[in-house]
Every structure is written in structure tokens, then in C-alpha cells.
Structures
1.
Amino acid sequence: MEINILIVDDNYDNLKTLGFLIESIKFEKENNINVIKADNGQTALDIAIKKELALIILDIQMPQMNGFEVATYLQKTSKTKNIPIIFLTAAFKSQKMRDRGLHIGAVDYLFKPIDMTILTPKIKHYIDFFVITHELIDINKQLELKVKKAIEENSLIETRLHQSEKLAAMGEMIGNIAHQWRQPIAIISMWANNIIADVDIDEVDNKTLKNYAQKINEQTKHLSQTIDDFRNFFSPNKESITFILENSIDKTINLLSASFQTHNIKIIKDIKYIEIFAVENELTQVVLNLFKNSKDILITLPREEKKLIFINGYQENNNVILEIIDNGGGVDNKIIDKIFEPYFTTKDKSQGTGIGLYMAQSIIVRDFSGTLFIENVDYIYEDKNYSGAKFIIKIPLKNK
Amino acid sequence: MNPEIRNLKEKVKNLNILYCEDEEEMRMGTELFLNKFFMSVDAVSNGKDGLEKFKKKKYQVVFTDIMMPIMDGLEMLAKIKTLDSETFTVTLTASEVDENKIIAASNLYFRKPITYDNMITVMKEIVDEFNL
């Protein structure tokens, strides 16, 4: 490492002697010691600004700008204020002058003639100090880079996760809309078939035709209602409102009604009257994800087996508890700790993204300051034994 | 007027039809459609009622949905085939669950929505099946 030591003295012989003495010091460590000489205060300041210095040894009595003035300037300048200064003087030996020098910010105040037994260890000490400081600065810079990189990587992962969450929610919604639409579309198509058949068989009657058209119109209302329901759910409205838990759960069940019907899934609901102040769509999203999770396991059950989802809501102390229980057999204990991890899925890649439960838990924790747990349960329903997964949402009730 | 369709109607009109569908509006629309071609159409809303009807009367053709309460279409079709293996079965369903089982259990299988052309195809298949 290159180490610069600036020596300042208006007397050329003194400069030469001191330079020679410093250059003759035997250092243990291999550093390239470079002694820079200045014969007046202004030159010293210029060098201090331009070069990186490990130490300045400064004479006091100099024409134009004396050593105290030089030191004062150096102390005021941010680039130079941390350079250690040792005053070396022949004239100002009084205690008062020494105090003044140290007060300006010098680290030491020595007298001429130069006693190398005193100066050498001090020079060595400040060189070591300079080297260590530099090493620390380097380590610090590397750490900063590492931290910055880690933060960047983390925020990238967060962004990707967030995008995955959104995409998963969208995909899920589109699937649900397709389900909700299939029946009305089938009905519309059948009424249209009736019109075509009447034309083909030549039995067209205006009143009947009008009736068919009205039937078709009724179904289009269902179609547009579905769109409105899902659009409400997707609205970027993040405003907290007071809503009734059961109403909200009913709306969520409604979004999935066609899917539940298709798969013969029975919903058993027991929700107490609770008012919640929160962003309603966020709770909907959580419940949708948990319903979907249950549905995905239930549809793998044999056709003749009952498919049940229980949803219970009640208040306990100052918390709202929402439980969702299915009869899908529960989660393998080996993986039960992992199911809330992002991208963890037991399903085929075409089926599961591994985002649903992660999303549900992050919403509950992040937006509701609550918790979401899972446990396996055995229970009896209508005199039959069932086993399944039980998700428990716990949300502290907020005051408006 | 379409002479081909008129002709089809003349050929199939005397067959007895059993039709199972739990969704009321769908059942109404389809029953009305079937009534334009067949003189005797019995419509029920689940597999159990369908099976009861089938035990009491001779039906040449059974149209059925799959996802229905009490007894689903697959179970009903299996029982009907054991009672009378000659029965021509047409499945009309929105579900894609158990598709292979449905295809195996029925003579014809269509996913909802069912177009007019599909319904005409069904009529033609029935004509072929019963040499009408």
C-alpha cells in the first residue's frame, strides 16, 4: 500500500534531515512510504487537498502562514480534517503553545531537535492506523455492496411474488367466471335452439318467439351480474369500510357457487353477527384462496363420497376467528410446515402455482395484523366420521 | 321450413324420451326443444327420479346431465344399462370431471352449451340406431 507522509518546514535543511530520518525507519510491514516535502503553509494545504495523506508533520514558525493557521484550515476542510497532525517546533516550547496546538486538533506536539526514539513509534502508529482505517473502509464498501445487492435481489423476489399473486388471483377469477357462465350460456343456447327448431319445423309463433327472447335476456342478466361481482372484487379500492362478516362470506360463496355445484361440494356455514372494519376485498381474497384449496382436494375424492366445507365465524375476546374445515383427509405431517411457503405446491404444475396459501397468509399478516394456521382435524358430522384440514384465521378487531 | 328436419321429426317422434336435468331453466328449455321432435318426453330433476321412471316405462332414449343431487348421471346411467342395455343414452354436461367415465357410460356425449347442429346430430344418430 502506498502511504504518503507530508512534512512541512520553511527551512530546507530541516526538511531534508527529517525526510532522511523518516525514510530510514525500518518498517515491519511492506508499505511503500512516500515522504512529500512542503516548504510553506500554502503548498502544504494544496498537497493535503490533492493527495491522500497518512500523517502531517508540521513546523509552526513559518513566514506568511504559520503551522497553527495551516492546521486550522486542515481541520475545517472535510477532506483533510481526519489527517493526523504532529507539530514539530523549536521555538514554541511553552505549555500555553502546546495547549493551543493540541486544541486546534493536532494529535501530538513535539520539540526540536528531533528525537527519533519518540518520533519513530508515533509515525509507525499513525501508519498502522492509516492502513487499518483503509482496510475497514474497504470492508465497509464491500459490505455495503453486498447489502445493496441483497436488497435488490430481495425486492426483485418480492416484485415477482407480488406479480405471481396477482396473476394467480386473476387466473383463479377467470376460471370461476367460466364456471359461473357455463350454465347461463347453455340455457341461452337451448332457447336459441328452440327458435331455430320452430323455424325449421315451420311452427313460428310471434308470442312464443318473444317468450324465448325474454328467456335469453334473463340469462344475459346473470352473465352481466357475474361480471359485476368479479369486477367489484378486482376493483383497486383499498379503502377500509365496516362490513358484516356473514354478508361478505355469502358474497364469496356466491362467486364460487357454480364451481361448488358442479363438484357437488356442500358448504355448511355458521357465522355469528360480527362487524369488521377492514378492506373487504382482501378478506374475500383470503377466503377464496382457502375455499379453492379445499375444493382442489375435495374433487380428488371418490364420486360417491360426500364433499364438505365448513365455515365458522365467531368472536373470541377481541379477535375474530374464522375457521374453514374440509373433509379432504388433511395434510401430510411431513409437509404441513411448508404449505404457506411461496411456490410450494403438492399439485401438478398445471394445477397449482403454490401461491394461494402464501397469498392468504401474507394478506392476513400484512393487512389484518392477524394469523393464519392450519391443523388436521377429525370430526363427526351427521353421525359420520370425517378427517380434513382446518384453517384458522385470527384477526384482532379494530376500532373504527 | 326445412324438409330435412321435418323428415327427421317424422322418424323419431314415436320414441319415448327420459330427460334428467337439475337446473330448472335448462330443463324447461331442453324439454320444450325435445317436445318439438318427440311426442313423449318425461323430464325429471335427479338421477333417482329418472331411475324410478325408467323402471316403470320403456324408454328408447335417455338424455341426462351428470352433476345432479341425490343420484348423479353416471350412477343412473350404469343402473339403466343393467336394466336395459339397448337404451340409447345421450349425456349433456357442463362438467369436465370424470370425462372418460362419461364417454364410456354414454352412447353420445356433448359438453354444454349444445348447439342446434349438435342436437340435430343426436336425432340422426337416433334414426341410425333404431333403423327408423
2.
Amino acid sequence: MASSDEELVARSRGGDVDSFNQLVTRWERPIYALAYRVIGREEDARDVCQETFLRAFRALGGFKGQAKFSSWLYRITLNLCRDWIRRERRTPIAQAPEGVDLIELASESAPSESIEELVARREMGRAIARVMAELPDEQRTAIILKEYHGLTFQEIADLLDCPLSTVKTRLYQGLTVIRRQLTEAGVNR
Amino acid sequence: MCDKELLVAYVYDEMSAADRMRIETHLRECAECRDEIKGLRGARVQLAAWTPPELDVDFQIVRHTRGRPQRWWSPAWGLAAAATILLAAAAAIANVQVRYDRDGVTVRTGWARDAAVASAPAAVQPLSASNTPMDAQYAAIDRRLRQLESAPARPTPAAAVTTAGLSDAEILRRVRLLLAQSESRQRSELAVRVAQIMTDVSRQRQADLVQIANNLGRLEGLATRDRVQHQQVMDAVARLAQQR
């Protein structure tokens, strides 16, 4: 039976590096996905992901468990993303290659998915990435945390240090912009 | 128009039962809010198409020890052992006091305490009058050196002892003998360690060969899969061309 985050954190705080590495294995994909969607660059998202775990490891002694371990990681990641955006002085980039590599696409397709469906899905993904990159930071972050990480309104409010009603407003505004822009781009279905 | 926050809460199904009943009642009467809900849900469905690239980070936290790792075969180890023996020998011949009187020559030294405790003149024997067997003397030296090796820092009280036929040359000879024995032990240990390393290297080499063989097999499998996928793509392109 797999240990809970709390158990692994307790053992990590006692100096057990293997336990912390289990946490890394468990959370590296969600953290990477969060960083990628917020800043939009694969390489930088990988760096942010790695830095998140390094900082968490160093600061583990100060983590008292008031919040969930995952929430703590999300907070570190979002802070690093914010620093990255500030440092780069630019908005997130919708990283999407111009050419479509059919061979690469074919290797990604599910057995039940045709090449045509796969191309359409990739096109939609690129369109979403472009629209998300144009959203204000606070709306984009709220949508990412809600849609892709399943956080509750309250958890998002705690992470972003804003009222619950603000979270709902940002989600409403963000979803409305996405819907409108996708319709204008002709990719709404 | 409905409260936007309530609409969002309804879309994400994160609201109280009372609020849900309230908004559902409203939606039955309000076409504009029904469209709004439909649009928000549609946007959510489309968001699912945005997937991040595959992650190939796979990093782990590794705790490094400070400083350079200790090697069992470090020259310092052998030097320390030699130094210990030399210190023991030096300690054994330290506090040497030579006195010559009518009772003969008396040597006071740090070892052979048993004979020295009885420091009365009766215990003092002439230098040339030694009757002690060589084996017993050697055993006494060996015991004393081992004591000194085990507790080199503790000062040993000097004691009077007869020379018992042990000249400086004899002492040096025995020290050299002990050093030779120590070197022999070190050589034996070195041989054992080298054999152990050779075994480890051989085992690692075998493991590497197995790993290489596995990777080659995997690469062959990937190449086959790529050929199949390439063919599938070509077929798809051909179909599309025919349809057009």
C-alpha cells in the first residue's frame, strides 16, 4: 500500500531522502504541467519543476503541514512562474510548432483515434494555448488550477490569496473570453 | 440575468443543494442563462484538448557527503599504520636511562615492566649475565608493543629493568621484524581488496552487457514500430489523396 503524502513528508523531515524522492515521482508531472501551462515553454517549465522540488526539499523543515503538501508545492511553483514571467518581462508563450509532423502525430495517436482526428485535436490544443496565453495572469492561473488540477474554489482562493468570489469571477471571465475567441478563430465546435 | 458566480459554481458543480435548486429553477425560465451555461460548458470541453508535452525530467534528490570520499587504499592508511608502529617502538625505547655502578649496567626503559617493578638492587643484573630465553623476551616485546598500539597516548611509567641481554641492535632488529610482519599483513589485505574489486568490476561489466543488450532490443522494437507507423501514415495520406 502506497504511503500518503503526509507520511512521506514526515519521513522526509526525518532525513529520509528516498521518501522525498517518492513525493517527487508522485508530483513531478502535475507540477511540470502547471508550470508549462502557466509559462508556456517546455524547457523553462522543466527548470521550474526541478527548482520547485529543490526548494521544497530545502524548506521541508519549515513545512508544518497546515496545508496539503500538494498545495504547498503549487504555491512554490506559482511563485517561481511569477518570477520567471517578471524576469523575462513577457507574457507566456503559446509554444506551438508551425509544421505538423505526421510521423510524430501518428506515434501519439490512441489506437481508436484516426490521423484526421488527431490533427484536429492538436489544432484545438494549439488554439487553446494561444487563447490562454492572451488571458490576464490571474484568470489564466485560476482556470489552470481549476480545470487541470481540480482544486476547489477555496483552495484556489487560498493559493492566490484572494476572496472566494474573486476566484469565481476570474473563472467566469476567463471561460467567457476563451469561448468567444475560439468562436472568432473558427475552431469552436 | 443570473449571478455570474452562481453560474460558475453550477458549471463546476461546486455549490450547496439549496443554491443548486435555486439556479435550476431560474434556468427553466431564463433562456439567456441556459445559453451562458451551455457556452461555459463548451469552453471547458475544449480546454481538455490542451495537453502539455511529455515530461522526461525524472530527477531525484541525491544527498552528497561532504569532502572527498574515503578510499580504503589511501596511502594515508599505510602511513598511519607504519607511524603507529614506529611510535610504539619509539615509546618502547624512550626514557632509556643507562647507569653503571658496582652492580653492573642498569637500563631504565618503558617496557618489560614486570621485571622493573622489583627495582631493588637485587633485581638489577649485570648486562652480561642474561639467562632469559629469547622466545620469552620476544613474547614480552610483542605484548608490550601491542599494549602500546592499543593505547599509544597513555603515558607509561618508566621502570627499572635489566638489559637482560637486549642490545640496541637487538631491539632494532626486532622492531624491523615487527615492521616486516606488519607490511606482510598489509600486502595480504591489499591482495584481498584487489581481488574483491576485480570481482565487482566483472559483475558490473556483466550487468552493463545485459543492459546494452536490452537497449538494443528495445531500439529494434522502436524501429519496427516506426516503420509500421510510417506505413500507416502513408496509407492515410494516400487515402486522403484519393478522396480529393
